[in-house]
Design goal:
This protein has 340 residues and is α/β, with parallel strands linked by helices. The protein is built from eleven helices and 16 strands.
Length: 340
């Protein structure tokens, strides 16, 4: 892969360059602030950009926004401390960044701490361009001891790059009296999934938290997948995480989640497919569409990355192709319809 590095620290740039080369990749170019990065990207688009958040002249969030608008390509946020800079990290992901990782550091013995994690993230992003197999729910273990799946309404949401900002817009608009369960699968590393839940919780009238093994969805609560394994609904009404399908590129997978909703949810469902790179969720959304579920797909113009929605539209899985604002209106009107 041709990897571009955007960072104002000479030490960080040297560490990143050495790690990229050690992984068998090429350094496409180096920029020391967001302005330089935009110019370089327009001249020669790389396969991936390693984007710092805090830089002079233009920070990483604004640079990500402009690059995704003018010369879209995969962006991986590389920052000194993801947990400390969670809000800014999710802003960048809201503008289209795919993922985030802590900046590797040069140890006292000359080793590069965090280098393997960076290469792992690059490898995952590289695999997004490959064909993804359709999930096989027959291989997913579910607890079938009792049939206790609730019959309350469910708002099921799948999102990836660009998702945090859209999720914040939608979740913040839902009323405190919401008579529905909300479950979100956002492509985000498990190590800062809790920070995403906390960030959304601060902007919501509803309680937003990470979903844990054994949870039973509760009306008026928003649950977010917090594992690199797949979030699924079980026959007994609980939430589980499973490793299968093992070879899924997207972890957690929206396809696996939507497929479990199709299989086990007894109540009304409205399903949202938001901005994201790749094709995860399209097959699962089609299953729900074919069952008569109201499926809302984000339109191209409002997407930071028109990948997952495009795949859903191509499969014919979209009941409506609309903006996030229109999704909010549709959710509220849908709840009124099923109540009457």
């Amino acid at each position: 892969m041709r990897v571009a590095i955007v960072n104002d620290s000479l030490i960080a740039v040297d560490c990143l360059r050495r790690i990229v080369l050690s992984g068998g990749h090429d350094v496409a170019w180096i920029a020391y602030n967001g302005v330089e990065a935009i110019t370089a990207c327009l001249s020669g688009r790389p396969d991936i950009i390693l984007m710092d958040l805090y830089m002079p002249e233009m920070n990483g969030v604004e640079a990500t926004r402009q690059i995704m608008a003018q010369a879209a390509c995969p962006i991986l946020v590389v920052t000194s401390d993801i947990q400390q800079h969670a809000a800014r990290t999710f802003e960048a992901m809201g503008e289209g960044a795919l993922d985030a990782v802590n900046t590797p550091q040069l140890g006292l013995t000359g080793d590069l701490a965090g280098g393997q994690e960076l290469l792992r993230k690059i490898s995952i992003i590289q695999s997004f361009s490959k064909k993804v197999s359709v999930p096989d729910l027959a291989r997913i273990k579910v607890d079938a001891k009792q049939n206790g799946m609730p019959s309350v309404p469910l708002i099921a949401i799948g999102a990836s790059s660009g998702g945090p900002a859209v999720l914040a817009k939608i979740i913040s608009a839902l009323p405190e009296t919401l008579n529905a369960v909300v479950i979100i699968v956002q492509h985000v590393d498990e190590r800062f999934a809790d920070e995403l839940a906390h960030w959304l919780d601060q902007q919501s009238k509803l309680k937003v938290r990470s979903a844990v093994e054994g949870d039973k969805p509760t009306v008026g609560e928003v649950l977010i997948a917090k594992s690199n394994d797949h979030l699924i609904l079980n026959e007994n009404g609980s939430i589980s995480y499973c490793r299968q399908p093992e070879k899924m590129v997207y972890r957690p997978s929206v396809d696996v989640f939507f497929s479990s909703v199709d299989k086990y949810w007894n109540g009304h469902v409205i399903a949202l497919m938001l901005t994201g790179m790749g094709a995860d969720g399209a097959e699962g959304l089609l299953k729900l569409y074919n069952k008569g579920v109201t499926t809302l797909v984000q339109n191209k113009e409002s997407c930071a990355v028109y990948g997952m929605p495009k795949a859903a539209v191509k499969l014919g899985a979209a009941r409506l192709i609309i903006t996030p604002e229109q999704m909010i209106d549709k959710i509220l009107s849908w709840l009124e319809e099923i109540k009457s």
